[in-house]
Amino acid sequence: MDVKEDHMVVSDDDTVKQDKDATNSTADRIKEGISNLHTSLDALRTSAEQMVEEEHQALKRPRLEPGPTDAVPPASGEASGF
């Protein structure tokens, strides 16, 4: 019985080219991932800054009516509520 062996000869140049193509493809995917991550983080930073600014504006809002502690200041020398 004769066994026929199929051999494919691959030159070093072909192997190097395939490795280089795979490396470039991987590098491109990594660059794209980093770019997407940068975009997402930039949007998150902008959103966080806006939320902090809105919170500061809410804290600075002027009061329309005096609250119970603002209505009558304690007399000098007296502690309120004691």
TrEMBL record:
Recorded superkingdom: Eukaryota
Region (Disordered): 1-34, 48-82
Biased composition (Basic and acidic residues): 1-32, 53-64
Protein's name in the database: Uncharacterized protein
Organism: Cladocopium goreaui
